[in-house]
Amino acid sequence: MTTPEEHQAAVELRAWQQRMQRRPTLWHRFTRATQVKLNGFIPEKVHQAITVVIKQMVRGVLFGSTYITRKPLQDAGFSEREAAVRTRIAYYRTTAAAEGAATGAAGFFVGLADFPLLLAIKLKLLFDIAALYGHDVKDYTERLYILYIMQLAFSSQHNRNLVYRRLADWEAYRQTLPAEAADFDWRTFQQEYRDYIDLAKLAQLLPVIGAPVGAIANYQLIKLLGDTAMNCYRMRRAMGE
């Protein structure tokens, strides 16, 4: 028998799946153009520094075990898992907001530190969520799944459609992956990721508005990431994985 929590999760999942598959609208294209224009106000050296951070993050996640801190949660019911996940999202949301306000208020160069700090918070949250849903991130394909979740959360609508289709058919796609992380084309992945990740966050580096943008943006970005991750793992559960 389906519990009320499972029914509500199924309703939320269907609504989320519909959003992920929408065609890009005029508003999406306008938003993207605005973000690109904002992007142009940031010095090229900053863009290069951010690219290096993302590159090292992707390599670290695929090849390392820095963020592997939890064992998969076993023998837990769906409601218990969901409650634990929501608790973790709330904790990291508050942490990220405080961190964003502090670095945003400290000026341009300290604001740059927010990018690796926020990436670390995001990854720690995603590793925790994966474990709470019972997935073992010692498997590099599970770590790759985490990176795709992050890309899905922060993509343009066009790219979101593409990434969603890959995650919706994850088991089939996973069978096409190389057996070892060392053989994965991480360079192409990080370049695609850099093209879409967190463009709105660049406003945090601008004078005066850095602190409020940092706090609000971080809070909302973690909320978005948490919601995306929950629905991705709900989708895998619904597909019987």
TrEMBL record:
It holds the Pfam family EcsC. It comes from the Bacteria. InterPro entries: EcsC (IPR024787). This is EcsC family protein. It comes from Hymenobacter saemangeumensis. The lineage of its organism: Bacteria, Pseudomonadati, Bacteroidota, Cytophagia, Cytophagales.
